[in-house]
Design a protein that fits this description.
The protein is about 30% helix and about 15% strand. It is α/β, with parallel strands linked by helices. The protein folds into two domains: about 160 residues, Rossmann fold; about 90 residues, HUPs (Rossmann fold), CATH 3.40.50.620. α8 runs parallel beside α9.
């Protein structure tokens, strides 16, 4: 990968004193510019890392070239800097890690935990919508283009989310055997995120609630691969008046990097941090200094969504 953008100081800012084993991350997809919903996730993960005197990383999840916008990755990094969200260590790009993902898939196939699948979405929908393991016993009969799926079972996956509380999910009836490499040979998010979190030593993951129901799949894969389980905290996501998550597809407005103070203040309010009115219009360094000192993960609302009209 050719990286055209360089941060203002170095490839890694690394100016924050690290005193704990805490390591967090923000992992955007370069499908467009950052919007207010993205800022919530970035700010929450940044503040939690800084409050705990840990490391905060940025990882670019550029796994899906057809959906990516040229220049979006560089724009995301510029915006983070302009909002004062300075990362530690070099930015990792998932598109540089295909060989690693394939090696893990080969390991899972060899161990019998994964298998090839030729089923289409239409076929799965006709059989009930949740993948039923149809191709598990048909490996010698498969022809043409195939995906690769991970075998699941009926065991319940449980964990305690630091914001949303106790969670429980049975993978087989909920999602069935899930895809780890697509038919177009692109690696699936569930596989890549688990591999990269383990490779980077991520200890704490603060992200949007839209990924809450994906977490059991990631925990299951972590168990199969013998990886350490991070702590998870899922913040409310921002939705429009139709209940749709803010995104490029729902025409979310890009953040204005020339006036970050207002949005930082609004984001702190949405995250339940109750910033004093005196911070309105203050320089971003002052806002972030106050936010780091006063950050409370326990104050973040446990609701799954926040409507845009509420801010």
């Amino acid at each position: 990968m050719v990286i055209s953008y360089k941060p203002a100081n170095t490839e890694a800012h690394q100016t924050w004193p690290v005193r704990t084993a805490y390591k967090g991350r923000f992992a955007p997809s370069p499908t467009g510019p950052l919007h207010f919903g993205s800022l919530l996730a970035a700010l929450a993960s940044f503040l939690d890392a800084r409050k705990n005197q840990g490391i905060w990383l940025v990882r670019m999840e550029d796994l899906d070239p057809p959906r990516e916008i040229p220049g979006a990755a560089d724009q995301i990094l510029r915006t983070l800097e302009q909002f004062g969200l300075l990362w530690d260590q070099q930015v990792i790009y998932q598109s540089d890690r295909y060989q690693t993902y394939q090696a893990i898939i080969d390991q899972l196939l060899k161990a019998g935990h994964a298998y090839y699948c030729s089923c289409s979405r239409q076929m799965i929908a006709q059989r009930g919508g949740v993948y039923d393991g149809y191709c598990r016993s048909r490996q010698s009969h498969l022809h043409g283009i195939t995906a690769i799926r991970l075998k699941t079972d009926n065991c319940a996956i449980t964990f305690k989310d630091q914001i949303q509380g106790p969670q429980r999910q049975q993978l087989s009836p909920y999602c069935g055997d899930f895809v780890i490499r697509r038919k177009d040979k692109l690696y699936a998010y569930q596989l890549a995120v688990v591999c990269d979190d383990a490779a980077q030593g991520i200890s704490h993951i603060v992200r949007g609630s839209d990924l809450l129901d994906s977490t059991p799949r990631q925990l299951y894969l972590q168990q199969l691969l013998g990886y350490q389980q991070p702590c998870y905290a899922h913040i409310p996501i921002m939705v429009n008046s139709q209940g749709q998550k803010l995104s490029k597809q729902t025409f979310a407005t890009a953040l204005d990097p020339l006036h970050p103070e207002k949005k930082l203040y609004q984001a702190l309010k949405v995250l339940g941090q109750q910033p004093p009115t005196a911070l309105q219009g203050a320089p971003i360094d002052n806002i972030l200094d106050w936010a780091i000192e006063n950050w409370s993960l326990g104050a973040v609302p446990s609701r799954l969504t926040v409507e845009q009209q509420e801010i």
